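Quarterly update, task 2.4: adenosine-5'-triphosphate-bound model.
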Amino acid sequence: MVRATRRQIFFEDREDSQHRPSLQEIENRRALRDGPDENDLPPASSSRLVDVLGTEYPVPDWLITEEYRDEVLGTIKSGKEGSVFLVERASPSGSHFLALKDYKDPNTRAFHRDQMYRDGRKFRESRETRAVARKSEFGRQLRAGQWQGVEFEILRTLWAAGVSVPYPVEELGSSFLMQYIGDETRAAPRLVDFRPTISQAESLLDQIFDNVILIAAEGYVHGDLSAYNVLVWEERVWIIDVPQAVDLASNPHSMELLQRDLDNVCSYFARKFGVNRDPSEEMARVISAAV
Ligand SMILES: Nc1ncnc2c1ncn2[C@@H]1O[C@H](COP(=O)(O)OP(=O)(O)OP(=O)(O)O)[C@@H](O)[C@H]1O
Ligand SMILES: [Mg+2]
């Protein structure tokens, strides 16, 4: 099904290129994508669709939703537990890329064995109960332990709250489609593959903290935040890989996980870029901003 092409080599493990857009360029692009002001997040939407639970959700302008054909073009990243593929969605009027995250075997993921992540999961009661009652796809997925559905739902919630996460497009069996971060030459590098200047590093770290606050304000802790799960594109950070996110209020380990996320990020920036922040102070800031 997936054609192994030169693109695979091209996209996978490629180092960051040196293109650094000017601040004005970034602002122009951001304005085009998100509206005139970052505070206006979530991005402007042209329409709303209704999902299987009957929940309305916004659809961004750039997404082709009618008369399209999706084609897998190559691999962005392949791993033991799953892969992410580059997909082209084409319609008579144009095309754009998407990313397809496919869990090979969801049960192999470490967090499935880790009760810490599952305790008090937010939608266990309300959403799951409703979903099961309606024999919905989401309920079926929860019962079957299909965690890509869980990741998709969390992404949808976080995106709607203005967190910088890829827009979740559609669930497809053991995989789901989301906004692709990157361009036709390369996928966005992970933070771990990106070498910023000191001032860029400071801005990236501030953005990460802002996103942690938005995530916490929405009642979640990422739970696996690291330089591997942050993408950087045109000076903007994108938080990815959220299936293990835990409920801030009801998970007994949420504070521990939040502190660990902040410790990871702070020690990475201190070690790699000499940007020093106190993780305990950041913890206090996140908590007071989020509640
Ligand atoms: N929306 C996206 N756009 C571009 N690249 C992406 C996107 N989502 C994921 N990737 C790429 O795929 C990789 C794996 O994605 P993710 O971290 O969500 O999955 P994972 O199951 O944790 O895999 P891994 O164990 O390899 O990190 C990311 O590190 C990133 O390079
Ligand atoms: Mg990851």
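Highlight for this quarter: The radius of gyration is 19 Å.
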